[in-house]
């Protein structure tokens, strides 16, 4: 019996046999060990093939018999190597399938736990009460929106008055004030004294004005200028 047959037939632990078969973790561990063993056998056969090739080259036609024996051994090793390659491919496929099955089993188990939890959560829920609650929430949201819209709208106080009429009345009041101001303005009188014929020669009264001692006509002119300044200030 080969090592692989012994491994799969008699290599199981007593605990696994007592449970009726190995667990997925145990089976995966055994498959990985088998893969490691076969890869080591591959390395050994590859080294033997290289060694037999070296022997065949060494003897060549000088010792044809020894060279042919080395090539025959190389062929046997190559055949074993090819068989191991096929075995490794089969074991890798089985290991991947087992890993996927184990993953799917764990996923389904966890999904079952989640379904049970959801069922437990929904045990105390009444769909009719939920519908009523959602309707109440919707109605309250509508009421809150109406209140918000009413508060945010601009108050319509005083909108019954026409702005054009108010502006026309305001313009009339301004015109009345302007006319009243024009009636109160006293225009300056024409000076009685004549202007000097040549610059530099001023009448005595003008000389006294420059000396901050104004005469009567100069004082009246100053008052008129004050009135004009007041009028200009009022108009602006």
What can you tell me about this protein's structure?
This protein has 236 residues and is mostly helical. Among the domains are: 23-113, Helix Hairpins; 125-156. The protein contains 8 helices and no strands. α3 (24-59) runs antiparallel to α4. The protein is elongated, with a radius of gyration of 60 Å. It starts with a helix and ends with a helix. Mean pLDDT is 77; it is low at 10-17 and 204-215. It comes from Sakesphorus luctuosus. InterPro entries: Snf7_fam. Residues 9-21 have a biased composition (Gly residues). It is found in: Cytoplasm, Cytosol; Late endosome membrane. Keywords: Coiled coil, Cytoplasm, Endosome, Membrane, Protein transport, Transport.
């Amino acid at each position: 019996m080969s090592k692989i047959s012994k491994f799969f037939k008699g290599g199981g632990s007593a605990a696994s046999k007592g449970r009726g078969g190995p667990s997925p973790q145990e089976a995966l561990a055994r498959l990985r060990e088998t893969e490691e063993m076969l890869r080591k056998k591959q390395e050994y056969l590859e080294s033997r093939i290289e060694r037999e090739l070296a022997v065949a080259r060494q003897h060549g036609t000088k010792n044809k018999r020894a060279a042919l024996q080395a090539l025959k051994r190389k062929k046997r090793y190559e055949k074993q190597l090819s068989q191991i390659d096929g075995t490794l491919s089969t074991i890798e496929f089985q290991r991947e399938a087992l890993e996927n099955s184990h993953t799917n089993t764990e996923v389904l188990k966890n999904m079952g736990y989640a379904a049970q939890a959801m069922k437990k959560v929904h045990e105390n829920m009444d769909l009719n009460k939920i519908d009523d609650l959602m309707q109440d929430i919707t109605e309250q949201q509508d009421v809150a929106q109406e209140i918000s819209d009413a508060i945010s709208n601009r108050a319509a106080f005083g909108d019954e008055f026409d702005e054009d009429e108010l502006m026309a009345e305001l313009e009339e009041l301004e015109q009345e004030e302007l006319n009243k101001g024009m009636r109160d303005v006293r225009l300056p009188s024409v000076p009685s004294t004549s202007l000097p014929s040549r610059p530099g020669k001023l009448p005595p009264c003008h000389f006294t004005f420059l000396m901050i001692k104004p005469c009567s006509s100069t004082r009246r002119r100053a008052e008129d200028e004050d009135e004009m300044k007041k009028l200009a200030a009022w108009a602006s």
